[in-house]
Design a protein that fits this description.
CATH architecture: Up-down Bundle
Number of domains: 1
Shape: globular
Helix content: over 70%
Structural class: mainly alpha
Number of strands: 0
CATH superfamily: MFS general substrate transporter like domains
Distance between the termini: 108 Å
Strand content: under 5%
Length: about 475
């Protein structure tokens, strides 16, 4: 049984002090989540170098396949981390859970960044890398759901879309930082130096997660849990399995439409451009940097739009449908490109539509769970879909290309995944929140008509014939006498 959650937080009423507190919460959670995501995803940007150092093979594609397989190991640890850390957050507190994920991420990053190569310590090297990758996945699996829940519960309902969008923007910023470092290192270092030790620089920079996470998150006010939900409850996992299994399944499939394109196109593009298209590595990093920049800029704008709409689901359906329709043309454009411009345009187009709907889908899932199991529900849904679909995307795409020899085979996995996500979104039932900005705006506009429609008509007075006054002589002409 979980102890009573601490319910000491009131929704901000709009004062300057409350706005500063809300800004501090958004910055603290987004900044640290972004750093944790950077530590986790930078592995994908430098998968080619990591594969050569820890998984040497005669075939370069085999080495890359083993490296991206290790990249996926971290994703399979995320459901376990989501279950443990999410339950801890629902029972003990959101802030306490987020403090622990920061330290675990830093430890896993240090293990990978400082591990000797295969040539130095032999088969122990890849085992150490896998252990560090597993610890990173365990920590991030719980942090993303808990941080998104903390931010959503901290502010007013009318700004939920904008607040949650910064969680998505921070993950885009992590990708932008990783891709920018890739551009910087490939343009300033020789290929031999980059493959030997230059790839470790991003991991060492990622160790900033420890002091930054400790400083900003320990200053947060604990647990913005509504007082109405502060009651003793059973184990969150048991309640989720009994009452919210369908919601978790649909949430997994809905979020798959964002994670598969991001991991199979954005994070995989440096390896795809280098090993499949045989183009300079800087082209792949520039493509990922542009995509990551769009993933930073678009979500806050989409969040503001979401807060002004009476319903969230139509915007999510539009973005999901566009993503499914654009995947095949984009890959066709990339495979036939002879320069970097078509690749930049195609990947940028996919990134815009993915970023447009990612925050809306996340908010729909957050609002679907009650507060007492929200952190666990969102964390498990996110971790499961990333483990099953996102973390395996690079491995599956690489395997399809190696098996068929056709670069277009990458679209054979991404396009059906986006189509299934669209169907799940159609089946998902949106939870209506009456205090949204858009709903209030429509209610204000149509309030007079609503009042007129609800008002009861006044009863008509009974008919009373008008009687003539006998004191007044009649003006009717007298009839003829017989």
């Amino acid at each position: 049984m979980c102890p009573d959650p601490v319910a000491t937080y009131a929704q901000p009423a709009g004062s300057q002090e409350n706005r500063r507190e809300l800004l501090k919460i958004v910055v603290a959670t987004s900044l640290v989540t972004g750093l944790e995501t950077f530590d986790f995803t930078v592995f994908g940007f430098f998968a080619v170098m990591i594969g050569d150092q820890f998984f040497p093979a005669t075939d370069p594609m085999t080495s890359l396949l083993l490296a991206v397989g290790t990249f996926g190991v971290g994703f399979f640890m995320r459901p376990l981390g989501a279950t443990v850390i999410g339950a801890y957050a629902d029972c003990v507190g959101r802030r306490a859970a987020m403090m622990r994920t920061s330290w675990m991420t830093a430890l896993g990053t240090a293990v990978i960044g400082l591990c000797p190569s295969f040539a130095t310590i032999g088969v122990t090297a890849p085992l150490i890398v896998i252990a560090g990758r597993s610890l990173q996945g365990f920590a991030l699996g719980g942090d993303i759901g808990v941080a998104a829940t903390f931010v959503m519960e901290a502010g007013p309902v009318s700004r939920r879309g904008y607040q949650v969008s910064w969680q998505l923007a921070s993950q885009g910023a992590a990708a932008l930082m990783g891709a920018s470092l890739g551009v910087l290192l490939t343009s300033t270092m020789s290929p031999a130096a980059l493959a030997s030790w230059g790839w470790r620089i991003p991991f060492l920079i990622g160790l900033l997660i420890a002091p930054v996470g400790f400083y900003v998150r320990r200053r947060l006010r604990d647990d913005p849990i509504p007082a109405a939900t502060a009651r003793t409850s059973g184990t969150p996992l048991v309640e989720l399995c009994r009452g919210h299994g369908t919601t978790i399944l649909l949430a997994m499939l809905m979020m798959m439409g964002q994670s598969v394109p991001v991991y199979a196109i954005v994070y995989y593009m440096p390896s795809y451009v280098t090993r499949v298209m045989h183009m300079p590595a800087i082209t792949g990093f520039l493509t990922s940097a542009l995509s990551a920049l769009l993933l930073v800029v678009i979500p806050p704008l989409s969040g503001r739009l979401t807060d002004r709409l009476p319903r969230r689901k139509p915007l999510a359906l539009f973005a999901s449908g566009c993503t499914a329709l654009l995947v095949y043309p984009v890959f066709l454009m990339i495979t036939r490109a002879s320069s970097a411009l078509p690749i930049l345009f195609g990947v940028g187009l996919i990134s815009v539509v993915v970023a447009l709907g990612a925050g809306v889908v996340t908010l729909l899932v957050l609002e679907a769970f009650p507060a007492r199991v929200r952190a666990s529900g969102v964390a498990i849904s996110h971790a499961l879909h990333v483990a099953l679909f996102g973390g395996t995307a690079q491995f599956i795409v690489t395997g399809l290309i190696r098996w068929t020899g056709n670069p277009m085979s990458a679209a054979w996995y991404v396009a059906p995944a986006c189509a299934v996500s669209f169907c799940a979104l159609m089946l998902f039932k949106e939870r209506h929140v009456e205090t949204r900005t858009g709903t209030r705006a429509l209610t204000t506009i149509f309030a007079p008509a609503i009042r007129r429609g609800r008002a009861k008509p006044e009863p008509k007075p009974p008919y009373r014939p008008k009687l003539e006054n006998p004191a007044v002589p009649s003006r009717k002409p007298a009839g003829r006498r017989a």
